[in-house]
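Data deposition worksheet. Section B asks for the primary sequence of the deposited chain exactly as it was used as input, without tags or linkers unless they were present during the calculation. Section C holds the resulting structure in token form. Section D is free text for depositor observations; keep each observation to a single sentence. Incomplete worksheets are returned to the depositor.
Section A, Depositor: J.P.
Section B:
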Amino acid sequence: MNKEKFKVDFPSDEDIARQISFIVKEGLPKQETFFKQVYTMYRQLGFQYLFPNSIEIAFISILIAIFLLITGLHVRDYFEAEPGSVYTFIFVTSPLLYLTICSLSLYHIWDNRTYELEMTCKYDFFQLTAVRMLAFSIFCFAVNTAFIIAMVNTYHHISFVKAFLISTTGLFLFSTLTLFVLMNNQAKIVKIVLLVGWTAGNFLAFIWSKNFFLLVLNNISISVYVVITASLLVLYIKHLQKMMQFRKTEGVA
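Section C:
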């Protein structure tokens, strides 16, 4: 009796590759964009959990805004005598509000000892911090813009575009530095010294070397400021994306 040979049709290499691609595509969760992740976190957690000390932040923000406005008006004679010095003032003070509210937010985490708890949740410390810092930067950007408008209306010799770009450059330069410091394994005191030292160093440089500061800030063209600001903004978003995926077995010192 002749047995029929059982013939198996093996798939081609193209079919195998296509099936593997299909399995991987359907089996793995779809990678969300950064802003989609932020929206999902906000929708699932809510404003109150993401910003538990929002009332304190709002109160401190009002105080700092009033302080900057009063300071800007109080030194009117100096700014009118040294027209370019107002740009230095804007650059140095642009990250002040961001520094304050970020420090306040991180202090509450360290003081309440909630870091270990947040690291065990669905969204850990670094993901929550990334969302908070994004929100803080947007908020500070809006406050700084309002401050620039007030300064331009007070001092008619300054350019809104230039003042706006200088303020934005200072804000996102400091914001990017803050993310870099937080994602590196350094002691708490080192983080604080680095962040506070940036602003303090700018103030001291303005006092002791104001001619150099004025020379640098005033001689940079608008187009260069646009490139610098855009580059810092892209770098800041990339660091936020990196922080969203960041995992760390050690606690924040």
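Section D:
Confidence is low (pLDDT under 50) at residues 248-253.
The longest helix spans residues 125-154.
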